[in-house]
Inverse folding.
């Protein structure tokens, strides 16, 4: 596809002026899991001129541009709508009394959390992720928490938060000013994903070339890229966070029981677990090619993505195996990159397709639906890197894991210097078993988190009598 044609599809997002991402095409269709303030809840159309969005007469939390859009959305919205209406005062939304509760000393964070847990308890498995976002980012004044819709207006700059009057906008200006830029980028990212889907990069997201001599990673991701100013660059930083974070962890802890330096490895196999929401975009070879560019001795890289959701929701099969193309320099050096997908770890381990990992990457070790542990630490020579948007999620998983496995923490939980730079709208709700890794809340003062914001690494502790330990990584 010609670069100009590809970029024209995203011209409204500033693609034609950015030197960072040079080519981009839509990789997925629109993602119906985002809220774009000031737009239709179904089609994301924004009113023009004298047009006005119409508020749902049931929950009073969402708006539509027409009755047709409301009817299209009803099949999924009706369960939440009826439950929210039953818990609200007649003709009002569920947060109509929030400002009075705050005047009495209650915190907004706690109000949202209790409301989310209430509706999740009523709806059970019918409580959707988008419902959690609705409750965490409702149409209320960002200063006084008044939810009277007729007086609410969006901040004209970020289009992310509402104010009921000019006086309250001015009163909140000092606090909001520090967040407005990030909120604006967050809304632009959500709007891009909601209306066009995830982009696919056809060239390296930032200037990069292979090195002949190994150099350690810099202090953080912003030493490699500029602070994102458009959604394409912001989303790209999320993807780059994965290989960069793996490399960061392996530079700290090494490979195998003898902790051999990662830059000496000639072969590297990565198993990625419990990351279905992110994994379907990782067929993009450019993201993983960057490991070749930083590790001059690396000749073969294999990425195995393991998650049932890849099959149930995204339509993959066991036969999905991809030999990825690389840049001319990597091709001349004889480097090979392979990406494959698997549905079940235990079945995969007993198949002839199985390739032993050098490192395992995961967002969590528990099934969010059943609460059962579905990732067991591997043999002691294989490190497991865990990343999440919130520290408490990792702490909870480590506590759960320590009850079933003898583990040794090789890299303590810490802020990930190579986290993504896309502000991600967070929502305040928990499952009946643990906080959902994709639906967490970091700071009550903000409404966004950053992908892979925290990181740690562990290995199974060596026990007397443990056999069949491979002492060194794949070289």
């Amino acid at each position: 596809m010609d670069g100009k044609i590809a970029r024209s599809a995203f011209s409204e997002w500033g693609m034609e002026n950015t030197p960072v991402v040079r080519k981009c095409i839509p990789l997925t269709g629109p993602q119906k899991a985002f809220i774009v303030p000031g737009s239709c809840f179904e089609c994301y159309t924004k009113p023009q001129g004298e047009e006005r969005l119409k508020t749902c007469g049931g929950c009073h939390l969402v708006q539509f541009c027409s009755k047709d859009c409301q009817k299209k959305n009803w099949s999924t919205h009706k369960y939440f709508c009826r439950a929210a209406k039953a818990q609200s005062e007649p003709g009002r939304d569920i947060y109509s009394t929030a400002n009075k509760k705050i005047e009495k000393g209650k915190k907004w964070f706690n109000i949202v959390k209790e409301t989310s847990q209430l509706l999740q308890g009523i709806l059970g498995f019918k409580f959707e992720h988008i419902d959690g976002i609705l409750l965490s980012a409702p149409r209320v004044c960002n200063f006084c928490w008044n939810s009277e819709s007729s007086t609410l207006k969006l901040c004209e700059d970020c289009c992310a938060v509402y104010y009921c009057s000019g006086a309250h906008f001015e009163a909140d200006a000092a606090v909001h000013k520090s967040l407005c830029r990030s909120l604006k980028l967050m809304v632009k990212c959500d709007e891009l994903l909601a209306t066009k889907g995830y982009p696919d990069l056809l060239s390296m997201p930032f200037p990069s070339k292979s090195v002949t001599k190994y150099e350690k990673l810099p202090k953080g991701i912003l030493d490699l890229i500029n602070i994102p100013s458009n959604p394409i660059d912001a989303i790209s930083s999320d993807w780059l966070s994965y290989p960069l974070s793996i490399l960061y962890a392996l530079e700290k802890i090494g490979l195998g029981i003898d902790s051999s330096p990662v830059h000496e490895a000639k072969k590297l196999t990565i198993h990625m677990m419990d990351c279905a929401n992110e994994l379907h975009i990782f067929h993009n070879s450019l993201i993983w090619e960057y490991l070749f560019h930083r590790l001059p001795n690396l000749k073969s890289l294999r990425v195995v993505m393991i998650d049932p959701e890849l099959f149930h929701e995204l339509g993959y099969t066991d036969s999905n195996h991809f030999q990825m193309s690389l840049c001319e320099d990597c091709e001349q050096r004889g480097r090979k990159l392979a990406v494959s997908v698997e549905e079940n770890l235990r079945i995969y381990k007993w198949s002839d397709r199985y390739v032993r990992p050098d490192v395992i990457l995961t967002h969590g070790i528990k099934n969010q639906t059943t609460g059962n542990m579905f990732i067991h630490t591997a043999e002691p020579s294989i490190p497991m890197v865990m990343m999440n948007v919130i520290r408490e999620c990792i702490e909870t998983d480590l506590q759960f894991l320590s009850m079933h496995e003898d583990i040794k923490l090789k890299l303590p939980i810490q802020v990930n210097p190579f986290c993504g730079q896309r502000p991600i709208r967070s929502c305040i709700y928990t499952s009946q078993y643990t906080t959902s890794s994709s639906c967490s809340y970091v700071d009550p003062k903000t409404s966004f988190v950053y992908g892979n914001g925290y990181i740690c690494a562990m290995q199974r502790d060596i026990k007397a009598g443990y056999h069949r330990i491979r002492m060194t990584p794949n070289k």
User: Anything to note?
Assistant: The CA atoms of residues 132 and 427 lie 6 Å apart.
